[in-house]
Amino acid sequence: MDPNDRLARTRSRPPAPADPERSVLITGGAGFLGVNSAIHLIENGWTVTLLDNLSRPGTERNLKWLLTRYPDRVTFVKEDVRNGAALSQHVKNQDAILHLAAQVAVTTSLVDPNTDFDVNARGTINMLEAVRVHNHDAPFIFASTNKVYGKLDHSNGPCKESQPLDFHSPYGCSKGAADQYVRDYARCFDMNTVVLRQSCIYGAHQYGTEDQGWVAHFVHSILKDRPLTIYGDGTQVRDLLDARDLSDLYATVIDKIGITRGEIYNVGGGPENQRNLLEVIDLIGELTGKKPQYSFTGWREGDQKFYVSDVGKARNDLGWEPRVDFDRGLRDLIAWAESVN
Predict the structure, then answer these.
(1) Complete edge-to-edge strand list for the sheet that includes strand 140-145
(2) Cα(219)–Cα(324) distance, integer angstroms
(3) Per-residue model confidence (pLDDT) at position 1
(4) Is residue 292 part of a domain?
(5) Can you give the C-alpha Rg of the chain in angstroms?
(6) Is residue 298 part of a domain?
(7) Which of 54, 63, 293, 301 has the maximum number of C-beta atoms within 10 A of its C-beta?
(8) Has this prediction a pTM greater than 0.90?
(9) 171 catalytic, yes or no?
(10) What pLDDT shows up at residue 9?
(11) What pLDDT, on the 0 to 100 scale, is given for residue 15?
């Protein structure tokens, strides 16, 4: 069986009854998270409109795969969230908005803070305003980041939503500003907005780079015998969440908007799925039969030495928790990567 087919059918929960009337707009829809969320929603009866400027490597490949697999359920719009005037026509008549489009790398934000701000902060305002004026009551789900909490040099255990904000790096500032705008539009404009502060997400359709999507970057590099550069000492800890679990959460947050509107949730693999970088590299080597090659260099600006999400709020409010353990998820990612490399 094609690994793409197997992975597309492997969901964290059984599909709900089909509801062909529901439609969703996914910004950044040809990206890794966009494709995974589209698969999940389509298989649960939604029709999907993907809005993407196709600037990130791998997006055209992802888009072709999705359009081939679901030709009658997917519409593609090549557009940029920075072009506010063009967004209104695309948000109209949608039953939900999933805003995933972003500049995603801390390193890029340090090189070009203006573009980082325009995409993450201004682009989010553009989306919020388009929805406020043209589709006010639609659930608006925003993919935020754990970087809004800053460096977190000292471990105090899993991070709760009550952790003080401490934006660090232009990326942290732009995503943090967007995060707060999304939250405030629920309070000031009575919109159905929800913020998800996401930790390290991995899975099929992720190509990854040295700057972002590090699990997939490690997998692709090790499969191709490319040496890795480890920033810091490799003992930094993250909680790792399979994109299928995150996609299930997106759908749950939309379906339970009466509970979730105006709320913020920390979203990650939780303590059960926390690993450090060296552990992940060793496991990839074991599962692929390859000997990873890597060297060390200095820490990068704003890097968190320890970040693990406390997912208790999502569990208590929504009955959601990670269901794909990291060892299984990594095997599936490797199987997909081997099929496309």
Answers:
(1) 74-78, 47-52, 23-27, 96-99, 140-145, 193-198, 264-267
(2) 18
(3) 43
(4) no
(5) 19
(6) no
(7) 63
(8) yes
(9) yes
(10) 40
(11) 45
Any domain includes 129: yes
DSSP single-letter state for residue 309: B
**Is 224 contained in some domain?**
no
Take residue 272 and report the two structure tokens written for it. Answer: 């059960």
CATH code assigned at 264: 3.40.50.720
CA distance 300 to 178: 23
The rounded distance, in Å, linking the Cα atoms of 293 and 226 is: 7
Range of the domain at 256: 3-11+19-205+241-271+304-325
Domain total in the chain: 1
Cβ neighbors of 56 (< 8 A, separation 6 or more) are 31, 104
Phi then psi dihedrals of residue 229, to 5 deg: -110, 125
How far apart (Å, rounded) are the C-alpha atoms in residues 103 and 52? 12
Give me the catalytic one of 70, 149, 171, 265.
Answer: 171
Strands 74-78, 47-52: pairing kind? parallel
- Contacts (Cβ under 8 Å, ≥6 apart) of 311: 158, 265, 266, 267, 268, 270, 320, 321, 322
**Vertex 171: Cα angle to 170 and 175 (nearest 5):** 115
Q: Return the beta strands (E) in the chain as ranges.
A: 23-27, 47-52, 74-78, 96-99, 140-145, 193-198, 200-202, 228-231, 237-242, 264-267, 274-276, 294-297, 306-307
Mean pLDDT for the stretch of residues 150-162: 84
Whole-angstrom Cα distance, residue 117 to residue 173?
A: 8
Are residues 303 and 232 in contact, defined by beta-carbon separation less than 8 angstroms?
A: yes
Q: What distance in Å separates the CA atoms of residue 39 and residue 262, rounded to the nearest whole number?
A: 26
> Which two structure tokens, joined as six digits, stand for 16?
């709900």
Give the amino acid at 85.
A
CA 39 – CA 27 distance, rounded (Å): 14
Q: Return the bridge partners of 176, or none.
A: none
- Report how far apart, in Å, the C-alpha atoms of 198 and of each of 13, 267, 288, 307 are: 20, 5, 28, 11
